[in-house]
TrEMBL record:
InterPro entries: 26S_Proteasome/COP9_Components, Rpn6_N. The gene is Psmd11. Residues 4-99 form the 26S proteasome regulatory subunit Rpn6 N-terminal domain. Signal peptide: none annotated. Gene3D superfamilies: 1.25.40.570. Pfam families: RPN6_N. This is PSD11 ATPase. It comes from Malurus elegans (Red-winged fairywren).
Amino acid sequence: VKRDVQENDEEAVQVKEQSILELGSLLAKTGQAEELGGLLKYVRPFLNSISKAKAARLVRSLLDLFLDMEAATGQEVDLCLECIEWAKSEKRTFLRQALEVGPSSQPYVGAQQLPEFCPSPLPGSQLLRELKKMDDKALLVEVQLLESKTYHALSNLPKARAALTSARTTANAIYCPPKLQAALDMQSGIIHAAEEKDWKTAYSYFYEAFEGNDSIDNPKAITALKYMLLCKIMLNSPEDVQALVSGKLALRYAGRQVQKL
């Protein structure tokens, strides 16, 4: 990671890029949030030696690893904002757009902080207009999902549903990465459970979200599992709760959080 490489040495650049991702993954798995945040800043000079698209993917991957840790270091908001400002100063539009979308959907970002990341994540916003012009459907799905979450937080259920429907429609036209598909399923489950009290449908969505997150070792899998258990409790099906907890998929998540339910 520390070794300098020549821009024209494609193999060396590729090896360094992979090494950075592997180091980031290791830091995330071992709970070294501060070191992972430092790595994000350390690699910036290297980003000039790779394409803007690759640089955007690398930074977003590292930032996602940092945010998925949910380590509550108190640096999350500042680090995200710093990365966005750096992307602006370097005139990296694609990276800036990706960064404006991603952090806003994290669980620790409250409604009062949303404007810091994305001044208006609702229909007609500058970011949404930019993405529609660029025809970047994957990022557009993320923005539409963020719209749904924002409207839901504002207790505007009809618009939350409409934005979610738009997100799922857009997602159906492209290859949707497992992490994004799981996030769509999670939001669908939340709306069916919290607003419509349709526990059976909500359970189906939470199950899909659980499987999707589990397949990529995303820590959000345990959140989906807890929502699945809550749905079974609300359906007055205690026997299903026990079957779920002792099932093959859920065994790896056995612990205090699940036992409390």
